[in-house]
Design goal:
Structural class: alpha/beta
Shape: globular
Oligomer: single chain
CATH superfamily of the largest domain: P-loop containing nucleotide triphosphate hydrolases
Distance between the termini: 59 Å
CATH topology of the largest domain: Rossmann fold
CATH class of the largest domain: Alpha Beta
Strand content: 15-25%
CATH architecture of the largest domain: 3-Layer(aba) Sandwich
């Protein structure tokens, strides 16, 4: 990486001084403090420290500020990273999640209930089983699998919650067809009810076009709030749609959520399985059992002639499961109807229950429900 001298902090602050947030009616320097400026590889990187509750609301102003800085200091291209102030002691009652190591970052604002005197701060104390749906990389259909698995578990007679932990790319609101912000009651967010399950996502709290340009501490703080500041209530199972990769968010969930187990989603080709192995290794290091592998996009059937084509190969996840001595949970086909159902906000297990894809998801849900009942000693349906 080639570093070079860039504009002085005073010059950066002068440009930012011309940026006024229309919703709040204040100049950006009055809302955010320049924490650092650096130039490398032709890019001007500016870090702004902002109050945690303001960070989600400054997306449009930050985008305009990046354009202004790029123009003022051409040919450099500017990028702005928001990081949150740590709350002063006693400034606000910590949420249950923050009380257990949220690090003081509360990017979702002031929701949260202080436990009563003598009451231990616990996460998910009325949730029987917590299952992470994960992948080593993006683009393998993890979120679609998590949504249809959760809905399928509900159809198996379980009380189910679904938490979207992908802070940078929350897709749950679109996939479930939910609109509007969740209600806050007694300081806690109330999960949205959709298709027989309870759901919560940071995407329900911000505009879907807003980029969440957050550092690790803010991401971990948001996840702590989604765990501790949401009234999940009594659930048989909470399904967590994990972000792709093996970073801070995954470690936070593995440490805080007391995961019962993880399901790994992969496509059949070797390059995807390499990343899936990294995900499995992460859960092993954090002592989270891997409940099994799912092979998504396993094959494609032509809707006109019925011819089956294995676009990404076939059987790679099954072979990997055998090699690692973990269960193989099933194959999900690659079908246009799955994509269309996700875009429409109606999970295919609901919208087309007799379809090949829905049947594959229902088989997956039935297998996982059996595991949940054994672990929780729930009676069979």
């Amino acid at each position: 990486m080639t570093e070079m001298h860039g504009p002085a902090r005073e010059d950066v602050e002068r440009v930012l001084g011309g940026m006024i947030d229309g919703a709040i009616g204040k100049r950006l320097p009055d809302l955010a403090r320049v924490e650092a400026c650096s130039v490398a590889d032709g890019r001007l990187r500016v870090t702004l420290a902002v109050p945690a509750d303001l960070a989600p609301r400054l997306g449009e102003t930050v985008a305009r500020a990046e354009d202004a800085l790029s123009t003022a200091f051409a040919p450099l291209t500017a990028s702005i990273l928001l990081t949150a102030h740590r709350e002063a002691p006693g400034a606000a009652a910590p949420a249950q999640g923050a009380a257990q190591g949220g690090g003081g970052h509360r990017p979702l604002g002031g929701v949260g209930r202080k436990p009563a005197a003598g009451e231990p701060a616990r996460l998910l104390e009325h949730v029987g089983v917590v299952i992470a749906v994960a992948s080593g990389k993006g683009g393998v259909g993890k979120s679609t699998t998590a949504v249809n698995l959760a809905v399928g578990l509900g159809m198996e007679g379980l009380s189910v919650g679904l938490m979207d932990a992908d802070v940078h790319g929350p897709s749950l609101p679109r996939m479930l067809g939910t609109v509007g912000q969740p209600e806050v009651r007694d300081g806690l967010l109330i999960p949205v009810q959709a298709w027989g399950i309870s759901a919560m996502s940071i995407g329900m709290l911000v505009d879907e076009t807003q980029a969440m340009i957050w550092r690790g501490p803010m991401v971990m703080g948001a996840i702590s709030q989604l765990l501790g500041d949401v009234a999940w209530g009594a659930l048989d199972v909470l399904v967590i749609d994990m972000p792709p990769g093996t970073g801070d968010a995954q470690l936070t969930l593995a440490q805080k959520a007391v995961l019962t187990g993880a399901i790994i989603v992969s496509t059949p080709q070797d390059i995807a399985l390499l990343d899936a192995r990294r995900g499995i290794a992460m859960f092993e290091k954090t002592r989270v059992p891997v409940l099994g592998l799912v092979e998504n996009m396993s094959y494609f059937c032509c809707p006109n002639c019925g011819h089956r084509t294995e676009l990404f190969g076939h059987g790679g996840a099954r072979d990997e499961a055998m090699r690692l001595n973990v269960p193989f949970l099933g194959e999900i086909p690659l079908l246009a109807d799955i994509r269309a159902s996700a875009d429409s906000g109606v999970p295919i297990t609901i919208g087309a229950p007799e379809s090949e894809a829905a049947q594959a998801y229902r088989m997956l849900a039935a297998t996982v429900a059996g595991t949940i009942r054994r672990v929780s000693r729930l009676p069979p349906v």
